Amino acid sequence: MSNSTEPPDREYIVPLCVLNAFLALSAVVLNSVTIHAIRKTSSASLPKNLRVLLLNLAFSDLSVGLVVQPIYIIHLTFPFESQHGDNLQMNTLALVTGLVFVCASVLGVLALIVDRFLAVYLHLRYQEIVTPTRVVSILILSWVISTTFPLFWIVQEYRYFLWIFLNVFLATCLTTIALLQCKIYSIVRCHKFQIHAQQVQGSKHIEDETRATFERKKSSVRSALYIYLLLLVCYLPKIFTTFATMKSKEILAKILHQYTITFVFANSCLNPLIYCWKLRHIRRTIRMILRNIFVERHSGTDSCGN
Q1: What is the C-alpha to C-alpha distance for residues 119 and 102, in angstroms, rounded to an integer?
Q2: 31: closest CA among 5, 69, 88, 1?
Q3: Are the C-beta atoms of residues 62 and 109 closer than 8 Å to each other?
Q4: What burial class does residue 171 get, using C-beta atoms within 10 Å of its C-beta: 0-12 exposed, 13-18 middle, 19+ buried?
Q5: What CA–CA distance (Å, rounded) separates 65 from 160?
Q6: Predicted TM-score of the model (pTM)
Q7: Which ranges constitute the DSSP H helices of 82-203?
Q8: Average pLDDT score, the chain
Q9: For 270-290, what is each residue's pLDDT tens digit?
Q10: Which of 58, 64, 198, 292 could form a disulfide with 268, with the two C-beta atoms 3.0–4.6 Å apart?
Q11: Residues 101-114: what's their mean pLDDT?
């Protein structure tokens, strides 16, 4: 039986490793450029709270490509390199590191959505209530939670409890974000009606001020929505296949399990594309960074030629 199953394992693991290597490299490059661009973007264009939340999310995505996926690739190839086939320690290491940074990414998206909800709900009171210090404190707490609970996986007795907790945790986060998005949509519609009413009444000063505040928040709210939709696309296949193939021992179930994990990791290299697409200030900064790199390289080549 073992001889008949090893060739299929090798056949699907080789392209899986290549795919993970490509996604890991993309995540490292894209998130590194994004972090540099967010830091270079002026505070007038990017509010401090939003800057901290995006940096946190980009750092967790960078860590997935820099730490989690290389360990996962080693975990995939370890059974073929090990003489005894003992993959337990590498499996535990890959799982724990993956859970830490994946939980951090999910909580980072949740914190971003909550912040955007408070921005449109509190409106003028937002800066007074949601201070940068409180945002940083919440993010530190999210990293403590993300680091603490996966460590229980090392203890054999807690694994079943942790598996249930993680599924409940993920379902709760996704449901909470969905409800907040619905509430944000409702508030944004109310703001549009208020602006329209002010236009009818002819109060130009209030209209211009309200519209300027609304337009500043609209792009970040849309970005948060697209980040959440991307999270759903990448995470839902893993949730469905986990329940569908929970007790299956077939090779197809194993292949689906591994590929849906890779799909979860793909979320880390796709998030920076959302920032560039929907946040024009970050897109402009990245364009400026790339232009400076190519101009310096071109000028350096010309000077060497001369």
Answers
A1: 26
A2: 69
A3: no
A4: exposed
A5: 28
A6: 0.82
A7: 88-122, 126-129, 132-151, 159-201
A8: 79
A9: 998 888 777 777 888 888 877
A10: 64
A11: 90
